[in-house]
Write a structure and sequence with these properties.
The chain has 362 residues and is an alpha+beta fold. The chain contains eight helices and nine strands. Helix 1 runs antiparallel to helix 3 and helix 4 packs antiparallel against helix 8.
Length: 362
């Protein structure tokens, strides 16, 4: 994102950015961060007399989001910095690595069944010049900041993510609200963009396939990468929760990717080792499909997030989040976000759809 203001306006904006306190990331529920970031970006566009559409990044969980004020005022990167680590690097405690605590038996048995099904799915051949395509329905919180949650109507979203190992500047494309938004690395005027390699925040099929398939080793790997990402953003210790962060990171990896079977199985088995993970007997995705949920409560934020699976086939359907206690966002049980995966595929070009083939060049 390039900030085209200059002179007194730029000076005032920089002074405001300096005086503002660092925004809290974990107090924003799923979808809420994007809503306010988009509003801030629109204000910047109006201020700079710009009429081009702003790219909207992937729907990320609060644990891996960039601060909205920093994005709007400082013109920093539009996507999250990827930091990869080695399995041997010391990592903060996480479920299964420092204690015997795991998910309750019901959730653990369910995740083991889901892992067995996932491991039997077909392996795909994906090359670096291809794109992962995912079509979803998304319902996000459209309420005002500091006010009650207001879940919007489901809207269709398509993403195409490059599979180049990187580093890359152009990460992909989003089609949403009838418009196309490129996913690119943005920097202030005069600075050279730095591309992102494949990693936790840009998970290509090849990178996912390279992850450890031993659940405990995989959890340590995720913990290392999450911790390094938080260190890079100076996330305070009191805002870090290794178990919740691991659950959210796995959920993000499941959402808009095509997953190698062995990696999918390992992720589900790893999730079974996270304390606090439970079974939600009736969860509903953005398409209205009922299924069985694998959930965890973010007790500090006051909401529960559940991954939803078909009760019969155990196929991943989507995700939902709702309040688990009365807060300023609403009463206990108020929904704050929902998603539903409708289609996943590997395609050869941007804007190519599995059911319609490659886009016309005329």
């Amino acid at each position: 994102m390039n900030d085209r203001t200059s002179g007194p306006e730029r000076a005032e904006r920089e002074e405001l950015a300096r005086l503002l306190p660092a925004p809290a990331e974990r107090d924003l529920p799923p979808g809420r961060h994007l809503h306010h970031k988009d509003n801030l970006m629109r204000l910047i566009d109006q201020d700079g007399d710009r009429t081009t559409a702003r790219p909207r990044p992937r729907l990320l969980r609060p644990a891996v989001l960039l601060p909205a004020a920093g994005l709007a005022l400082g013109g920093v990167l539009l996507t999250t910095l990827t930091l990869t680590g080695q399995d041997s690097t010391p990592a903060p405690p996480v479920a299964g690595t420092g204690s015997q605590a795991t998910a309750p038996r019901g959730a653990a048995v369910l995740l083991d069944r889901i892992a067995s099904v996932a491991e039997k799915s077909d392996e795909q051949t994906v090359t670096g010049d291809q794109f992962v395509y995912v079509r979803t329905l998304q319902s996000v919180n459209e309420g005002e900041y500091g006010g009650p949650a207001k879940l919007g109507e489901p809207g269709e979203r398509e993403v195409w993510m490059t599979q180049k190992p990187g580093p890359v500047i152009d990460e992909g494309l989003i089609h949403e609200d009838g418009r196309y938004y490129p996913i690119t690395v943005g920097v202030p005027d005069g600075e050279t963009p730095v591309g992102y390699p494949a990693g936790l925040n840009r998970p290509t099929y090849a990178w996912l396939a390279s992850l450890p398939t031993d659940p405990d080793t995989l959890l340590r790997r995720l913990a290392t990468e999450i911790s390094r990402d938080q260190d890079a953003r100076d996330t305070p210790a009191e805002e870090r929760d290794p178990d919740q962060d691991a659950f959210e990171a796995i959920g993000e990896l499941l959402r808009e990717t095509v997953m190698p079977p062995k990696t999918a199985a390992a992720l589900y088995k790893a999730a079974a080792r996270i304390p606090g993970v439970s079974e939600d007997p009736d969860a509903v995705d953005a398409a209205g499909r009922h299924g069985i949920g694998v959930a965890r409560d973010d007790t500090r934020a006051g909401w529960r997030t559940a991954w939803i699976f078909d009760s019969t086939t155990l196929e991943y359907l989507g995700e939902q989040s709702y309040l688990i206690r009365d807060t300023e966002m609403g009463k206990k049980g108020t929904p704050i976000s929902k998603s539903a995966v409708l289609e996943r595929a590997v395609v050869d070009a941007l804007r190519e759809r599995p059911s319609k083939g490659k886009p016309s060049t005329t």
